[in-house]
Amino acid sequence: MKWFNKIEAKDKNSNKPVSAPKILLVSDYLSEKSIYFFPPGAPKEDILFKLVSSLPVPDHSLALNAVLEREKMGGTIVDSVISIPHARLRGLKTIELAIGIWSDVSKDQPRLFFLFLSPREDTKIHLLFLSSLSSLFQTEGFVNELLNLKAPHEVVAKIRQIEKGI
């Protein structure tokens, strides 16, 4: 992701350089209170419900419905182990993030859930956050390390450690 800072964009009208987009740190939007570990057999709907319920949003039902509707259009899956359920909601001021780690290895489906909600009015922050998430996933061994962690504070520490090297 270091290359991202070096891109020099030009203003369309004046052809003058403009500042590069800000890199968002996933850890800036993460709280230990919104990281959950799920046992084998937990249904995906229950996982999404718990993750959405942990976020400080005005209407959890509306948020969950928005995430489920977005998932119907096609889930955002990375490397078959990672799912990024997300939705854009009116009235949010910033990104809201929850992480779920599902210990069910018997099924061939995602085991890491990075559920986030973003302001509907701010497409830029939504895309920058997706970009920041993708840079984490490109780190060798990141997924396996996360799957082996046992406590929320370990997850936050691992993400911060990875972000220092990006």
Task: Output the keywords.
alpha/beta, 166 residues, two-stranded antiparallel ribbon, globular
Sequence-ordered SSE layout with sheet pairings:
Elements: H1 2-6, E1 9-10, E2 17-18, E3 35-38, H2 44-53, H3 60-72, E4 77-78, E5 82-83, E6 86-89, E7 96-102, E8 112-119, H4 123-137, H5 142-147, H6 152-165
Parallel strand pairs: 3-7, 5-8, 6-8
Antiparallel strand pairs: 1-2, 4-5, 7-8
Going by CATH, the homologous superfamily would be: Mannitol-specific EII, Chain A
Q: What percent of residues adopt helix (DSSP H or I)?
A: 25-40%
- CATH class assignment: Alpha Beta
- Based on the coordinates given, report the CATH architecture: 3-Layer(aba) Sandwich
Class per helix and strand makeup: alpha/beta
| Oligomerization state | single chain
Question: If helices are DSSP runs of H or I spanning 4 or more residues, what is the number of helices?
Answer: 6
Q: Mean pLDDT across all residues, rounded?
A: 85
Summarize the structure.
The chain has 166 residues and is α/β, with parallel strands linked by helices.
What does this structure look like?
Helix 2 (44-53) packs across helix 3. A hairpin with a 3-residue loop joins strand 4 (77-78) and strand 5 (82-83). It contains six helices and eight strands. It starts with a helix and ends with a helix. By secondary structure, it is an alpha/beta fold. It has helices at 2-6, 44-53, 60-72, 123-137, 142-147, 152-165, and strands at residues 9-10, 17-18, 35-38, 77-78, 82-83, 86-89, 96-102, 112-119. The protein has a single domain, classed as Mannitol-specific EII, Chain A (3-Layer(aba) Sandwich).
